[in-house]
Structure formats: structure tokens, C-alpha cells
Write a structure and sequence with these properties.
Layout: E1 3-7, H1 22-34, E2 38-40, H2 42-47, E3 54-61, H3 64-76, E4 82-85, H4 109-117, E5 121-124, H5 137-155, E6 161-163, H6 171-180, E7 184-189, E8 203-207
Parallel strand pairs: 1-3, 1-8, 2-3, 3-4, 4-5, 6-7, 7-8
Helix pairs in contact: 1-3, 5-6
Length: 219
Amino acid sequence: MTEILTFPTPSDNNNDPWAMSPLVFESEMRWLNRRGYKGVSLKKFYENVEQDKVVILTFDDGYKDFFDIAKPILNMLKFSATVFILAGLIGDTGRWRRKELQSSVLLNWNEIYDTIDRGHEIGSHGLYHPDYRQLSGQELRKEIKESKEIIEEHIMTPVTSFAYPYNLYNEQIIQIVKEAGYKRAVRNGKNCKNDFEAPCFHLCRNSIHSKTSIREFIK
């Protein structure tokens, strides 16, 4: 069974209780590699006919630590990942986590371009990471559709994957994601089982962080 995993960006930031240290992240990726698994992005998974022993790797928010720490490790092992970025906060900071991550810098466009050049997928995480339950229909469309348009304008390739901020979604949000032209969307869950045969807008991801291990999900 293919797993979709989501990781906090590896970091030495002691203020983040969920962060995974760079050494632990590298050991997890090497563990996959030693057992013959290949880490892939959502895009590569859906494009690839050969899907034996693959694990889909995803990262939310688009922190600069992905570029500095995670990407070199992934590329060393010839793994790819999907990075969900916030189109309204490119090169800014993670404002929604200000209490925990006061200096958490987000990727700028040049780093995003290099990330794509190295074989990784860029997906949308919206514009500003608000609570979607508090938004009007018009505000939701702006967050979901405009973020896609901004990213596509810069990277010159279709953005097909979306991640729901705070893991919050309902039928209205799903419908807007579909209407915006995404092909798939992801959420977090437990003991995830996915049907990859049909287009899906609530693909379930298992979360890996400082208190869990990839080995809990890969049998």
C-alpha cells in the first residue's frame, strides 16, 4: 500500500515542538532508501507507471529550511517531494505561527525555481494560511483560485495539487478547489487508506514529526 506522508520542515528550531531535527530526517530518508523505497512527489506518483515501493513525500508552508536542509538530503537520495507554498507570503515569514516560529522564513521565488529544477513539485497551500471556516465564499475563491494563478504565473507550469490549511475543509471548500482546476487535494489523518484510481480531493496523509517515526507507517 502506498503511503502519503507529511513532514514538518527539518529544523533545529527548539521553539517548534513538532520539528524534526535534520539528523533524524536524514536517518528516516536513508532508512527508506536502504529498504528499497523511493520517495516521490504527488505529481511523479501520478505520472509514473511503476509504483512499486514508493512513498509520497509532502511538506506544507514552504519554509526556507526545506531549501537549506531537506532538499539536499532528498536530492542526494534521488527522492522528490511536493512542497505546498503560500502564494501571498513568498519570501515572508510564517505569520500564523508567530508565537512558535518568530523568525521562520518562507521560500522566495528564486529558491522555488531551484526547487522545481531539482525535480520537486510545487503545490498550493492558499494565499495567507487563514482558517477557511471563517471566510466567505468570495474570500475562499480568492485564497484557492488566486494562489494557483499566482504560482502558475511565476513557475510557468500547471499547479495541480492543493493542501488544506489547518487540515480544515468541507464540501464547499472541496467544490471550490475542483472549480479552480486542481486535480487533487490532501488532508491529514490517521491510518490512512487512499484510492488512487480516481481523482480525489481529500487524500489522506500520515503526519511524521518529532514524536513519530516513518517506520510506524511503512511495513
